[in-house]
């Protein structure tokens, strides 16, 4: 029986993926990596340093920059990003998500955040959603990021639930892999062809309701 939901943030609760994309694109231009849809998709759900590494490797520069230079590029991206997210308000919650979060909480489900973003607490504050969640996994304390299951295992722990009693909501392929490996039920939001590993799939956040989830799970 499902008793909790583990939410990714970027791309599930708020459309911050577009801000990550814009912020990284400035760095990609600087290092001379051509920006493609495929690259942008691959950055979703991946940690800040892993994202930078993918951008450098995309133009064969994985070993060109020193660790100090890489840290400076990542810091530059985060400054770009924080400028963009400073403007976030409740109006930036993705369609249907405020309703779903409210519905799930009212129905007695426990909610936690499993976002790779170190900016998640700040974003939730801007969106006015902090109080709906029992807790937020601190990604700085993780040994491995998505697709490793650790972040979803830890989110279930925050709820004191076995992962099997939870559903993880994700927009990224790495996140779906992480949910599946954690032993939770994966709910993919986005193109079913991209998120083909997901147990359940919705094209849009607007489609996510308890009733539709129950129908997909055959209950
Ligand atoms: P930050 P999620 C992830 O958030 C983003 O999808 C990913 O693009 C980003 O690099 C990562 O957070 C780290 O974010 O630089 O703010 O620490 O999708 O796991 O909620
Ligand atoms: Mg995401």
From TrEMBL:
Name the UniProt key words of this record, in alphabetical order. Carbohydrate metabolism, Isomerase, Magnesium, Metal-binding, Phosphoprotein
The UniProt entry, under Gene3D superfamilies, shows: HAD superfamily/HAD-like, Putative phosphatase, domain 2
Co-factor requirement: Mg(2+)
Top-level taxonomic group: Bacteria
What Enzyme Commission number does this protein have? 5.4.2.6
Q: Which GO terms describe its molecular function?
A: beta-phosphoglucomutase activity
UniProt-listed InterPro entries: B-phosphoglucomutase_hydrolase (IPR010976), Beta-PGM (IPR010972), Beta-PGM-like (IPR051600), HAD-like_sf (IPR036412), HAD-SF_hydro_IA (IPR006439), HAD_sf (IPR023214), PGP-like_dom2 (IPR023198)
Pfam families annotated for this entry?
Answer: Hydrolase
Query: Which catalytic reaction applies to this protein?
Result: beta-D-glucose 1-phosphate = beta-D-glucose 6-phosphate
Q: Which family does it belong to?
A: Belongs to the HAD-like hydrolase superfamily. CbbY/CbbZ/Gph/YieH family.
This one is known as: Beta-phosphoglucomutase
Which species is this UniProt entry from?
Answer: Leuconostoc holzapfelii
Q: Give the gene name.
A: pgmB
């Amino acid at each position: 029986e499902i008793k909790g939901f583990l939410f990714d943030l970027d791309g599930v609760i708020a459309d911050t993926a577009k801000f990550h994309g814009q912020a990284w694109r400035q760095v990609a231009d600087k290092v001379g990596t051509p920006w493609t849809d495929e690259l942008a998709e691959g950055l979703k759900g991946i940690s800040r340093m892993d994202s930078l590494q993918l951008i450098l490797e995309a133009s064969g520069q994985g070993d060109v920059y020193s660790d100090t230079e890489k840290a400076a590029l990542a810091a530059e991206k985060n400054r770009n990003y924080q400028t963009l997210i400073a403007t976030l308000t409740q109006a930036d919650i993705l369609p249907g998500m405020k309703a779903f979060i409210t519905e799930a909480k009212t129905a007695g489900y426990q909610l936690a955040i499993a976002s790779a973003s170190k900016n998640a607490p700040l974003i939730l504050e801007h969106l006015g959603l902090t109080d709906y969640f029992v807790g937020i996994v601190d990604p700085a304390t993780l040994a491995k990021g998505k697709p490793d299951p650790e972040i979803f295992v830890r989110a279930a722990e925050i709820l004191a639930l076995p992962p099997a009693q939870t559903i993880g909501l994700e927009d990224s392929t790495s996140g779906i892999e992480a949910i599946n490996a954690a032993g939770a039920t994966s709910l993919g939001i986005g193109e079913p062809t991209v998120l083909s590993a997901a147990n359940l799939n919705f094209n849009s956040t607007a489609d996510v309701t308890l009733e539709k989830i129950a129908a997909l799970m055959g209950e």
